[in-house]
Design goal:
By secondary structure, the protein is an alpha/beta fold. 25% of the residues lie in helices and 26% in strands. The mean pLDDT is 90. Residues 43-145 form the YbaK/aminoacyl-tRNA synthetase-associated domain.
């Protein structure tokens, strides 16, 4: 992996994520990424998207495989909600403190509930870090424990 040119600025970009992970006892490795691009493949690491979902009483952070669809119907049933929506970019930023493309439970404002797709179980995953210049590699099962995530089958029905 390429070393960031300005290591100090790079580290400051994901400081909240690092502090939150440390406070929860979650081992995390931050890796450089190119802003605005999908994460480069890393051997043995599953890229994951974090989606901010709005429901009547607040937000939920949903973690799912980057390259896979998830079932909105299963998510609605799990959350007991008839209606869920995606906030606009400003709403996602206000809810989490992170811009789209960098959203992560790590250090997110709001301490929102986390739902993790069961397909991630047992995997090393790379998620957002709050910074467009870094991804965060974590063990999915450890992340689920650290955030008391609900792990459920969210796979899209064929």
């Amino acid at each position: 992996m390429a070393e960031p040119a300005d290591r100090e600025a790079w580290a400051a970009g994901h400081a909240a994520a690092e502090a939150d992970a440390r406070a929860r006892g979650l081992a995390v490795e931050f890796v450089p990424r190119t802003p605005g691009e999908r994460p480069a493949p890393i051997d043995g690491v599953e890229p994951v998207k974090t989606i901010v979902v709005q429901r009547r009483d607040g937000y939920v952070l949903v973690l799912a495989p980057l390259a896979e669809q998830f079932s909105w119907a299963k998510l609605r049933a799990l959350l007991g909600a008839n209606r869920l929506s995606l906030p606009d970019p400003a709403g996602a930023l206000a809810a989490t403190g992170y811009a789209r493309g960098t959203i992560s439970p790590l250090g997110a404002r709001g301490d929102w509930p986390v739902v993790m797709d069961a397909r991630l179980g047992g995997a090393r995953i790379v998620i957002g870090s709050g910074s467009p210049e870094a991804g965060a590699i974590v063990d999915a099962d450890e992340l689920a424990r650290a955030y008391a995530a609900t792990v459920a089958d969210l796979g899209a029905d064929s």
